[in-house]
């Protein structure tokens, strides 16, 4: 599908096959805008979505954490959850985790689309069900933000539609001579360990948790007492002054970890135990000194650190 700008200029195509991602050996010679696309770890905040040619809106608090190796946790909390209803029953809620990769168009007939890339997100865990994968074309804006354009199912209509999402970064914080910045280290990823011979099967659940700098998100899927699939999610942020917009709310709660003031988003649907991990090892992963291979058992599920970047 071809995609055109407002003045009729051709911007590219949606859903076309892309060449492989650049290897580390070639990354050093890429133009800066391509390096910006490939920069990991990354912290992304969605500011709005538009379906078809309708005006954009935002009814979620969406944060995506992506590790250096491309693992990601994407949690989309409804801005106004309905009291008394399970989080997962809200149509605006969506949470998923998996692997992402980014590629660029090869020059064709002497024409290429600069400041654009193609991103594919394979969902290993998804609150909406298995087998979901989405992809979109990304367009880098002069201010460093990004527009994502693609096709996916509109939860309001159930039909596949053109969408446009606006992505930015979290608020920068001052603190050194280099001016405001967003802290992206350490980056720590832990995943559940398979407890059965089948590849990818976890008897008591399947989950992932990622900490990047001052942000941490985790997701776990497992059967409840009735055998129904249950999706649990957590979002945490280290905000010494309580100013972090990603988790700020009067009902947010605080846990002191390694001298940091970590705030748990009040919309998280795990048990509100601020001193011990109840389902997802977020408190543990927000501590210091982790190395690949470290393990912890939480509620009968073994989690293992698979990536560390300081």
UniProtKB/TrEMBL annotation:
Pfam families, A to Z: HRI1
Organism: Exophiala mesophila
Matches recorded under InterPro entries: Hri1 (IPR031818), Hri1_N_sf (IPR043047)
Region spans: Disordered: 1-25
Top-level taxon in the UniProt lineage: Eukaryota
Gene3D superfamilies in UniProt: Protein HRI1, N-terminal domain (2.40.128.320)
Designated name of the protein: Protein HRI1
């Amino acid at each position: 599908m071809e995609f055109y700008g407002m003045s009729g200029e051709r911007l590219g195509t949606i859903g076309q096959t892309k060449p492989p991602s650049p290897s580390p050996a070639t990354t050093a010679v890429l133009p800066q805008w391509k390096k910006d696309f490939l920069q990991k770890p990354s912290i992304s905040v969605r500011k709005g979505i538009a379906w078809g040619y309708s005006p954009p809106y935002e009814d979620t608090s969406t944060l995506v954490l992506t590790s250096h190796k491309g693992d990601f946790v994407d949690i989309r909390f409804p801005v106004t959850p309905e009291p008394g209803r399970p989080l997962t029953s809200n149509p605006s809620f969506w949470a998923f985790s998996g692997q992402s990769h980014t590629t660029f168009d090869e020059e064709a007939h002497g024409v290429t689309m600069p400041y654009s890339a193609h991103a594919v997100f394979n969902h290993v865990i998804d609150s909406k069900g298995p087998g979901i994968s989405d992809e979109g074309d990304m367009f880098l804006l002069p201010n460093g933000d990004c527009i994502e354009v693609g096709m996916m199912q509109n939860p309001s209509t159930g039909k596949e539609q053109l969408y446009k999402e606006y992505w930015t970064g979290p608020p920068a914080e001052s603190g050194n001579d280099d001016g405001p910045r967003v802290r992206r280290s350490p980056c720590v990823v832990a995943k559940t360990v398979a407890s059965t011979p089948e590849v990818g099967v976890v008897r008591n659940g399947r989950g992932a948790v990622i900490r990047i700098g001052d942000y941490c998100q985790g997701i776990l899927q497992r059967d409840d007492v009735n055998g129904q699939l249950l999706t649990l999610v957590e979002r945490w942020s280290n905000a010494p002054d309580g100013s972090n917009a990603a988790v700020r709310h009067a009902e947010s709660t605080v846990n002191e970890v390694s001298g940091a003031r970590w705030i748990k988003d009040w919309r998280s649907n795990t048990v509100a135990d601020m001193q011990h991990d109840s389902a997802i090892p977020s408190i543990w992963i927000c501590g210091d000194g982790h190395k690949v291979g470290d393990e912890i058992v939480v509620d009968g599920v073994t989690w293992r650190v698979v990536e560390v970047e300081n």
